[in-house]
Amino acid sequence: MGRLNFVRFGALPFVLAVLVIFPNITLAQDFRLLTPQDIAVSHTQWGSTAADFNGDGYPDLAVSDFEGSGGITVLLNQGDGTFGAPAQYPAGSYSICVISGDVDGDSDIDLVVLNEGSGNIQVFKNNGAGNFQSAGTYAVGENPIGGDIGDIDNDGDLDVVVGNAISDNISVMKNNGSGVFTRTNYASGDQPYSATIADLNNDGWADIANPNFYGDNVAVYLNNGNGTFATPAYYHTTDEAWMISAEDFDGDSFRELVVVNAINDDFSYLDNNGDGTFQTAVNYTCADGPVSVMAGDLDKDGILDLAMANYWSGTVGLFKGNGNGTFLGPNYFHAGQHCRTLSLADFNGDSQIDLAVPNEGAQYVSILLNVSACLNVPGDANGDNIFTAGDILYGVNYFKGQGPGPFTNCYCQSRGYIWAGADGNGDCSFNGLDIVYEVNAIKGRGSLPRRCADCPAVHQ
């Protein structure tokens, strides 16, 4: 958007005078996601991961092909939240999960695929341009379902941990630094469906936690300080614990656990005591069949929120974090058919975390762009989600060539991404007329700024 000529109107002294005393105008906030963009692929999808595969600064996608032939599908981001033609790479039988990280130390993001039917993991090395080549398979246990990647032995390279559902163990796969792995198995509970790697007792060594599907619990393995693990401690969840997230949800610098429970339609929050042991779970009701969970700041308030994929309802559920280990919500958004997993990343470069959801019930991946932090408070030019005389001064400086354009960049149905947050008179644009309108509002000579009628475009 080019600069607009600004007509002098003599209001600037008044703007400065009321800058501090004018009352703020705020709007209640809720999560907002745009209607899904569905990307057709050629296979039934299950797992997903988001990372920059080709080094262009935009997060790309890889999804696992949950069919007998198996494989992964890679989707490269075009820089605006749309994706290029799918590239498919064959793998083992029933590729159920894909995780990403630089396993060979060349600064390119590689992929590790869990092949449930083959009982192995498969490494795909990146050539730096987002093209992948199979670089070895490694046996794990029977029916690997989910896993994580991280440095468990503090040697500077990324290792892999896998939950093996039928053999009732986890496989710790240590990396030699070049993407070659050796296995050690640890007994777990009844059907471990996933695992996460995180330092749970703040001793500088990564620990492991895994949900046990039929055990209705989560097993916590504390690191012995050498990349081996102590006998696990078990903490009760509810029915059919599936996937897990480990983050600091209450601001005490220790990571808590969130586990989704598929049959009980809830998730369990386990507060960390500060030593890697956990309190009794607090449970929150979800939609029908929660099977995946990830944490991220979805509304840009500096506090972690939760996103969950719900299998039977075909939705994602978003829970707002309060910053003290409690959560509000949820908001539900339709995402497709039989949502199995989800990935979080800023796909369109607007500094908000978006969602990608593979659909097991259909051959497409749904992209849900996030506009939660874009409140479109009428007249808000500086992006602080309130309207004050400071917004007028911000706009005046822009038109005088002495400052940047409006901060808030929101999505509108009719015009795509525009500076709708700075719009004062409700015409879905920003120009000098909005400044005049807003000055009159502050002087009490006119109405308060009005919201652009078609912004934002949201669905629920």
How many distinct beta strands?
30
Shape from CA axes? Answer: globular
Oligomer: single chain
Overall average residue pLDDT: 87
Rg, nearest Å: 24 Å
Q: Main sheet, how many strands, which sense, barrel?
A: 4 strands, antiparallel
Strand order of the largest sheet: 1-28-27-26
Class based on secondary structure composition and strand pairing = mainly beta
Please state roughly what percent of the residues sit in beta strands, choosing from under 5%, 5-15%, 15-25%, 25-35%, 35-45% or over 45%. 35-45%
CA distance, first residue to last residue? 31 Å
Helix content: under 10%
Count of helical stretches? 3
Give the low-pLDDT segments: 1-29, 456-460
What does this protein look like?
There is one protein chain. With 460 residues, the chain is mainly β. It is built from three helices and 30 strands. A four-stranded antiparallel beta sheet has the order 1-28-27-26, with no helix packed on it. α2 runs antiparallel to α3. The longest helix has 11 residues. The N terminus and C terminus are likely disordered.
Short summary of the structure?
This protein has 460 residues and is mainly β. The chain has three helices and 30 strands.
Label this structure with key terms.
single chain; four-stranded antiparallel beta sheet; 3 helices; globular; disordered N terminus
Describe the SSE topology.
Elements: H1 12-18, E1 37-40, E2 45-51, E3 60-65, E4 72-75, E5 87-89, E6 95-101, E7 110-115, E8 120-126, E9 132-139, E10 144-150, E11 159-164, E12 169-175, E13 181-187, E14 196-198, E15 207-212, E16 217-221, E17 233-236, E18 241-247, E19 256-261, E20 266-270, E21 282-285, E22 290-296, E23 305-310, E24 315-321, E25 327-334, E26 343-345, E27 354-358, E28 364-368, H2 389-399, E29 410-412, E30 416-418, H3 432-442
Antiparallel strand pairs: 1-28, 2-3, 3-4, 4-5, 6-7, 7-8, 8-9, 10-11, 11-12, 12-13, 14-15, 15-16, 16-17, 18-19, 19-20, 20-21, 22-23, 23-24, 24-25, 26-27, 27-28, 29-30
